[in-house]
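User: Can you fold this complex?
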Amino acid sequence: MTKIEAIIQPHKLEDAKEALKNIGVDGMTITEVRGHGRQKGHTEVYRGMEYKVDLLPKVKLELVVSDQRADEVIRTLAAAARTGKIGDGKIFVYAVADAVRIRNDDRGDAAL
Amino acid sequence: MLLALTAGVSLAQSIPPDIAKKLDDLDKATKNAQMAGDNAWMLTSSALVLMMTGPGLALFYGGLVRKKNVLGTMMHSFILMATVSILWAVVGYSLSFGEGNAFLGDLRYLFLSGVGAAPNPDYAATIPHQTYMIYQLMFAIITPALISGAFAERMKFSAMLLFMTLWSLVVYFPMAHMVWGKGGLLNASLGGRFPAFDFAGGTVVHITSGVSALVCALYLGKRNNYPDESMRPHSVVLSVIGACLLWVGWFGFNAGSAVAAGSLASSAFIATHFATAGAVLGWMIIEWMIVGKPSVLGAISGAVAGLVAITPASGFVKPMPAILIGLAAGVVCYLMVSKVKKIFGYDDALDAFGVHGIGGTLGALLTGVFATKEVNDLRMGQPMGLVDGFGGQMTNQVIAVLISWVLAIVGTLVILKICDVVLGVRVSKDQETEGLDLSMHGEEGYNLES
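Assistant: Here's the predicted assembly.
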């Protein structure tokens, strides 16, 4: 099993979800996060006080799929979340030791 | 018809009793009708001015602080709606509007005794004395609330309460008496030594609060890590709502200061509105030119600056000068809060001094320039301000400005020292880091997960 963790632009979340649904991925966890990579932040000015805001809002999407499907999911996700501009985010891929469906103790791929 | 009747009666040798009674009834009915109209407007105005403090100022200031201090900041405004009210009923109204001497009222209205349905002809001949008293109370509430912008996010709540009580007694009541009380030193219509024009409180409300705010900011010192740590407003949205409520409420503040529902109220209402519009544009344009973007916070701050500056002038100036006063206030206050504050480095957290102290001073001085008998014939045909050809009024305005500055500085400094010795004025560093909502009040403003 493979865990795919994608940090993407918040406004691309709907596109990403839709694309994943279309290839039959129906489970994911989403978190609103803040962060930055090479993208610089921006400056805000309140009554002449300048504040540099370098942690920007992003969405973190986590999903675990079977090893066979991992590559397809990663490519779909990257294509859906891409705008081509700096700040589009990153995808990290991990190996997963096991999975358990809490409801009935299913293990491994069956639990996904 | 009434005229014809009166003329006919005066020619007669003696008035038949039935006609005399009719005339008497007519006279009473006319007076009652005027009182009903004026009283309706003044009660409405009283409510509008209270709305300026809560929710107006509470939202305006509340949005400008970090979210860990939103409740503490709103409480600064809200609690004064209770505290000052009680103080006012016990002694405040009397000290402000009792005849007394040139500097302070006497105790004739202690516990509101003698303040009833009958009008007080010195102050407002066509509304119940009670209405006048409650209207003036709303000013006494918002004035100290304005100061709280300077010490936001770092003052101890107990010390704030003691400070505001003493400040009302030492600064506000004397100043209100000097400008508006019968026999007050600066009173323009009831025998003041230096008759200054202050229609709705440029000196009494805005200079006293704004200058005291600066003293508070200097005495308490900067917030921890100011200006290195980000102290962005947590919700400009709340501040926009607050500023709009202030704009609307201010019609009660300024037009209500005519203490009647006549043409002077209309004139003040209009001057207030146009000055505010001018100030919004003034602030926005200069900020756009300097920073490159017209901020929403700038636009609403401009509105407040304009409302402040037109306050003393509202019942004395025509609409075009009002727009000029507003434009000037927008530009000057912008430069104060964004440039001058930075040069001196004091932490007037929410710019109570930059907007109210400076805007109030500017407005008080420009009132001397633009006051005209065409709007307010207070001097019975004599010229009013510089535009009428009377430069001498400027002297009175300057004296009023100086007295309010000095009283605010000295009074506030002494009171802060007392509060500091008795209670300590500033929260501990840990409490400040935790935020006033939790450390002072044991609550949080936003429990969105619950």
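The helical segments of chain A are 13-22, 67-81. The beta strands of chain A are 2-8, 29-35, 42-46, 49-53, 56-65, 89-95.
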